[in-house]
Specification:
By secondary structure, this protein is α/β, with parallel strands linked by helices. Helices cover 37% and strands 20% of the residues. The chain is elongated, with a radius of gyration of 30 Å. The protein folds into four domains: 187 residues, ATP-grasp fold, A domain (Dna Ligase, domain 1), CATH 3.30.1490.20; 150 residues, D-amino Acid Aminotransferase, Chain A, domain 1, CATH 3.30.470; 128 residues, Glucose Oxidase, domain 1; 321 residues, TIM Barrel (Alpha-Beta Barrel). It has 30 helices and 30 strands. The chain starts with 7 loop residues before the first strand and ends with a helix.
Length: 805
């Protein structure tokens, strides 16, 4: 007699091709357990019921025909009718007794799991539909999962409820939208060892950036406790970005971190309490710290790459992945508990690139994490519970504490979504991304600040921060054609300040970044004067002290805060354009601008004309700022050496004299930034007439020159570009200015040094760009909006020049 199970498959018996037998989720778990464990991917053991077990349940209980009657004639746009029919279907399945032979097999398999992990082993009971996790349809969150299940009674109830969840309202609606027949889709139950992440952390990671589709990062989200809170959008998690190309080379390539609030965590409930899990508050101290160590982040990223490479090999093309993970609070091990293909960004074509821009801004009502890079407006509709969904009108903006999977039929008709809670991998974010509408998640006070019927504009076009404005604000969409036939010989680079826009803007055809301004990162993300972090004892204002303490909380030293934030900002830009060159200009604040930073007024002198005062290179070796420059250098060294982003080129601004250049290079060398070592190139801004007059001498010290046409025009014409009284005399096209720029380009060529320009003039004046090309400049760096237009113009010009040569 054959005693082999009929309705059970263990993970080591399952491969990816078994989707029709055990569904996408369980097929993936089996594939990873069998194939990837030797490569360091850790998956808890478990087993799955087969599709035939589901059909056995329906037919042995006689409910299949009844289910078909319930579903017959369904209009999914009628939310109330959908809810009624879904409830009836679920009750039919939940009330049907599991066939005895099926239940016997489940019990025996559970007993075997208990032999491996211990008596009364706690398991996760997860649903896996036989049509799910296709490359174009995720089915994510359509059915239910039950955690902390232990013992026969709880297991039997969880299995019945899992089967019933094939007919949740959102699953019914989703199948209709994607053309799946309800009665050609079966449900497999996955029963796997629970990871005790209730005592540690868990989360979700993607092998691309979920907002831009940038393929070279692993994006990881993490919270304390069980991971359901991230998926449900109940917490705003920590975020980490790891750069894949240099991680593969052995570098610790964490290029960015964002601290989430993590206000609650899901843990096991006590035995006999009814609920199997519960949420408790996280202490204020724990909230303000990252919940994963760098080692854990890197370990997760490595596992994610192994998974992506394996699934890509199976598919015969790059296959970005959506992966759930959990860390055991007992063993400290990291486990992969689910993996499926990413189904939104990976499906987009790259023929065109849309840029949304607000034409004017209004009163800010609330801010949170942006999802999607779009803008939408409409009347707000606050939804507090499922009973209010029938009030929602198409084209309104959905405002809620969070969203639930059963809300999806209504979410499809929303212009945008705004939630108090959640991160970029929560339910609201996943659905809005799939629907192609903007969402602002984790806005904290959205339901307080926004009223039903209020006209609002939701903007996710400004980087990581999504903003909700009062009123219907005007905006426009620019469509950029990314399909270029040829590129000009002149390198066309991008001027970029905001790291949050780097992944997106890297899609525009380019030759790298000609100017990344450090000041933007310091002003927008660090906000504190570096010397205030080196010498906090000199600050007497209690208010400023408290603000600095709040921003730097959780860092070993206050200097670490500056170095980490600056390195991550620059690292994000360098990664986005890797391996193309990225030229980062060291800080070039004027004294009045530095003084406006937190603590800045204690360290900055007052000057009559800061524009030509204590700025740029003069600061770097001066005792008034030398320690601040050391922090800048440490950050740049971290980008190049720790992150492995050796495409970073360092540029020195406003360097007045040759001996000053020597002092700055010596100061950099003290902190490990030695020109030529590990391929380090150092450029200098060519923005002072003396840089041009002594270009042969400066060429002995620097690898390239970037013409700052704004300052060079100012100092050639003697015009203060900040003065409105003489603004009419400021013109880069002046004959004298153009002559000195020509001298700079020729001098760089004579010394075999790179020549580029990063000023505004080529973006504003086509004839100025033409002049630069005729002079033989090596690169022109432009604001993003001008890149495609000027690229085409220069390509045509180069053809014309070559015809006449």
């Amino acid at each position: 007699m054959n005693n082999s199970p009929v309705y059970i498959r263990w993970f080591n018996e399952i491969i990816l091709a078994d989707v029709p037998v055990v569904g996408g989720k369980n097929a993936s778990l089996g594939e990873m357990y069998r194939e990837l464990t030797p490569q360091g991917v850790t998956v808890p053991n478990g087993f799955a019921t087969t599709a035939s077990a589901y059909w056995h349940l329906l037919r042995s209980s006689g409910i299949e025909d009844k289910l078909k009657q319930v579903m017959s004639g369904l209009d999914k746009t009628n939310v109330e009718d959908l809810a009624v029919r879904g409830k009836k279907a679920r009750e039919l399945i939940a009330n049907a007794a599991l066939p005895e032979d099926l239940w016997t097999e489940i019990k025996k398999a559970y007993d075997k799991l208990c032999e491996e992990y211990g008596p009364g082993t706690h398991v996760a009971v997860r649903s896996s539909a036989t049509a799910e996790d296709l490359p174009t349809a995720s089915f994510a969150g359509q059915q239910e999962t039950y955690l902390n299940v232990s013992g026969y009674e709880s297991l039997k109830t969880a299995c019945s409820n899992c089967y019933a969840s094939l007919f949740t309202d959102r699953a019914i609606s989703y199948r209709i939208d994607h053309g799946f027949d309800h009665f050609k889709v079966a449900l497999s139950i996955g029963i796997m060892k629970m990871v005790r992440s209730d005592l540690a952390t868990s989360g979700v990671m993607f092998t691309l950036d979920t907002e831009t589709g940038f393929r070279d990062v692993v994006f990881i989200t993490a919270c304390y406790g069980l991971g359901e809170n991230i998926v449900q959008g109940a917490v705003n998690p920590d975020e980490y970005y790891v750069f894949k190309p240099t991680l593969k080379k052995g570098h610790r390539a964490i290029i960015r971190r964002n601290l989430g609030e993590k206000k609650i965590k899901m843990i096991y409930a006590r035995s006999g309490s009814g609920a199997l899990t519960k949420n408790i508050e996280v202490s204020e101290q724990a909230r303000r710290k990252f919940c994963l160590s760098d080692d854990d982040v890197l370990s997760l990223a490595r596992q994610a790459i192994v998974i992506e490479d394996h699934y890509s090999m199976k598919a015969g093309k790059n296959r970005p992945m959506d992966i759930e993970w959990a860390k055991s609070g007992i063993s400290g091990e990291l486990f992969i508990i689910q993996a499926r293909p990413e189904t939104v960004e990976s499906q987009k074509t790259m023929d065109t690139f849309e840029v949304y821009q607000l034409d004017k801004k209004g009163l800010v009502l609330t801010q949170g994490k942006s999802v999607g890079e779009k803008i939408a407006s409409g009347k707000a509709r606050r939804i507090e519970n499922v009973s209010q969904l029938s009030l929602f009108q198409p084209g309104e903006v959905l405002i809620s504490e969070t969203t639930m999977p059963d809300w999806e039929p209504v979410m499809k008709s929303a212009a945008a979504i705004v939630t108090n809670k959640g991160g970029r991998t929560c339910h609201a974010a996943i659905v809005s991304r799939e629907l192609g509408i903007p969402a602002v998640v984790g806005a904290i006070d959205a339901t307080e600040k926004i009223q039903t019927g209020q006209e609002i504009t939701v903007s996710c076009a400004g980087g990581d921060d999504g903003t909700v404005y009062e009123g219907l604000l005007p905006f426009h969409v620019e469509t950029i054609n990314l399909q270029e036939s040829t590129r000009p010989k002149t390198k066309i680079m991008i001027n970029l300040a905001n790291p949050e826009m780097a992944f997106s803007l890297s899609k525009i055809p380019n030759d790298g970044v000609g100017l990344a301004r450090m000041e933007f990162i310091i002003n927008s993300f660090i906000k504190i004067h570096p010397m205030a972090l080196v010498h906090p004892e000199q600050i007497t204002s209690d208010t400023e002290k408290q603000q600095i303490e709040t921003l730097t909380f959780g860092y070993t030293t206050k200097q670490d805060y500056f170095v980490d934030k600056l390195a991550e900002g620059v690292g994000t830009i360098a990664a986005a354009f890797y391996p193309k060159p990225v030229v980062v200009r060291m800080s070039d604040f004027k004294t009045n601008e530095y003084a406006s930073l937190l603590g800045g007024s204690y360290f900055e002198p007052k000057e009559e004309n800061p524009m030509i005062g204590f700025r740029g290179a003069a600061r770097y070796y001066d005792d008034k700022y030398r320690e601040g420059f050391a922090l800048e250098c440490q950050a740049m060294q971290r980008v190049r050496d720790t992150m492995g982003l050796t495409n970073l080129i360092i540029m020195i601004p406003f360097c007045r004299r040759v001996d000053e250049a020597e002092k700055v290079l010596a100061e950099m060398a003290k902190h490990g930034l030695i020109r030529g070592r590990n391929g380090l190139e150092v450029y200098v801004m060519c923005e002072i007439p003396n840089n041009v007059l002594l270009i042969d001498e400066f060429s002995a010290l620097f690898d390239g020159f970037s013409i700052g046409s704004n300052d060079l025009t100012q100092l050639t014409l003697g015009v203060d570009r900040d003065s409105t009284l003489v603004a009419h005399d400021f013109d880069e096209r002046d004959a004298g200015v153009m002559k000195i720029i020509a001298m700079a380009i020729q001098g760089a060529k004579r010394n075999h040094r790179h020549s580029g320009i990063c000023g505004q003039a080529p973006s504003d004046y086509p004839e100025f760009a033409e002049f630069l090309v005729r002079q033989g400049i090596d690169s022109i760096s432009l604001i993003p909006d001008s890149v495609m237009k000027i690229t085409g113009r220069i390509a045509m010009l180069e053809k014309e020049i070559s015809r006449h040569e």
